C-alpha cells in the first residue's frame, strides 16, 4: 500500500507542468469534433475559464498525468469530456461535477497511444462550451503490458484507498482504485493471447448524498486509477460506487478524515 500511495503522490501532487506544449493543428480533431464529440463549432480557449496541464514528453505512455484547473472566479462547469485525439477510442472519459468541486482542480492519469493533442471540453450551466488542451509526446500507452500477473490482478481488483488533506480552505481528496483497466489491446505476457477489455466504465464519488463527480470511462484511463481533486467538505462520509464492463460492482464508504 505504501508504494501505491507514494506513486500517486509523485505523479499527481506535483506543481503544474511547464506551459510549453499548446494544442497543435489536428486533422483528426477536425473529424472528431462533430462526428464523435458533437460540436458544430470550435469551443473558445481561455486558460482562466479552464486549463489543462500535461507533460510535453510523457515518462510512461500508460500513466500520463492530466490536471484540469480553473481560476477562482471562473464560471462553474457541470460536465467535461476528456479527448485524446489519436487514441483508438478518442473519448477517454466524460465527467459530471457537483458544486463542491468548483472551481475545478482535478487530476487523473490516462493512456496516450501516439503523439497527440489531449483536450478537455467543459460545459457550463448555461450550456456554453470552453476548451483546453496540450500536445503530448507519448506512444504505445493503450497496448502497454499490464504491471502485474493475472492472479494478483484478480486478487486485488476493486480495492480502494482514500486520503484527504486541507489546502487553501478546501480539502484535497485522493481516491485510488485497484483495477487493471484492460484496454483489449494488451497481451498476456505468459500466454501471449490478447486480454479481453475490462475496465471501470462507471464511477460515482459523493460526500453523503451530494455528488462530487461521476465518470463514464473508456479504455484510456490508466491501470489502477487515481483521482486527486479539491472540494468543499460538508462533513459527510465519502461514498464511492464503481462498476466495470464485466458487471462487477464495488461500493465503499470512507470517513471524511480518510
UniProtKB/TrEMBL annotation:
<dbReference type="InterPro" id="IPR014756">
    <property type="entry name" value="Ig_E-set"/>
</dbReference>
<dbReference type="InterPro" id="IPR038162">
    <property type="entry name" value="SoxY_sf"/>
</dbReference>
<protein>
    <submittedName>
        <fullName>Quinoprotein dehydrogenase-associated SoxYZ-like carrier</fullName>
    </submittedName>
</protein>
<dbReference type="InterPro" id="IPR014880">
    <property type="entry name" value="SoxZ_dom"/>
</dbReference>
<keyword id="KW-0732">Signal</keyword>
<dbReference type="Pfam" id="PF08770">
    <property type="entry name" value="SoxZ"/>
</dbReference>
<dbReference type="InterPro" id="IPR030831">
    <property type="entry name" value="Fuse-rel_SoxYZ"/>
</dbReference>
<feature type="domain" description="Ig-like SoxY">
    <location>
        <begin position="43"/>
        <end position="142"/>
    </location>
</feature>
<feature type="signal peptide">
    <location>
        <begin position="1"/>
        <end position="18"/>
    </location>
</feature>
<dbReference type="InterPro" id="IPR013783">
    <property type="entry name" value="Ig-like_fold"/>
</dbReference>
<dbReference type="InterPro" id="IPR032711">
    <property type="entry name" value="SoxY"/>
</dbReference>
<dbReference type="Pfam" id="PF13501">
    <property type="entry name" value="SoxY"/>
</dbReference>
<feature type="domain" description="Sulphur oxidation protein SoxZ">
    <location>
        <begin position="170"/>
        <end position="254"/>
    </location>
</feature>
Amino acid at each position: 500500500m505504501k508504494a501505491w500511495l507514494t506513486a500517486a503522490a509523485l505523479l499527481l501532487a506535483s506543481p503544474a507542468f511547464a506551459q510549453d506544449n499548446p494544442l497543435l493543428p489536428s486533422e483528426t480533431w477536425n473529424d472528431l469534433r462533430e462526428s464523435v464529440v458533437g460540436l458544430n463549432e470550435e469551443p473558445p480557449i481561455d486558460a482562466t475559464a479552464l486549463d489543462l496541464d500535461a507533460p510535453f514528453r510523457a515518462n510512461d505512455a500508460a500513466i500520463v498525468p492530466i490536471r484540469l484547473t480553473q481560476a477562482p472566479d471562473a464560471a462553474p462547469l457541470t460536465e467535461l469530456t476528456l479527448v485524446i485525439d489519436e487514441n483508438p477510442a478518442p473519448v477517454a472519459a466524460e465527467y459530471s461535477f457537483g458544486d463542491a468541486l468548483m472551481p475545478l482542480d482535478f487530476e487523473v492519469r490516462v493512456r496516450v497511444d501516439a503523439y497527440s493533442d489531449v483536450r478537455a471540453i467543459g460545459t457550463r450551466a448555461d450550456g456554453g462550451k470552453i476548451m483546453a488542451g496540450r500536445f503530448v509526446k507519448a506512444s504505445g500507452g493503450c497496448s502497454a503490458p499490464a504491471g502485474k500477473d493475472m492472479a494478483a490482478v484478480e486478487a486485488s481488483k476493486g480495492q480502494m484507498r482514500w486520503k484527504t488533506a486541507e489546502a487553501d480552505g478546501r480539502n484535497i481528496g485522493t481516491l485510488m482504485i485497484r483495477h487493471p483497466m484492460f484496454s483489449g489491446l494488451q497481451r498476456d505476457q505468459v500466454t501471449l493471447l490478447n486480454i479481453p477489455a475490462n475496465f471501470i466504465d462507471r464511477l460515482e464519488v459523493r460526500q453523503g448524498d451530494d455528488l462530487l463527480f461521476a465518470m463514464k470511462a473508456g479504455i484510456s484511463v490508466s491501470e489502477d486509477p487515481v483521482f486527486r481533486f479539491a472540494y468543499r467538505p460538508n462533513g459527510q462520509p465519502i461514498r464511492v460506487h464503481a462498476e466495470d464492463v464485466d458487471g462487477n460492482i464495488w461500493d465503499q464508504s470512507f470517513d471524511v478524515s480518510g
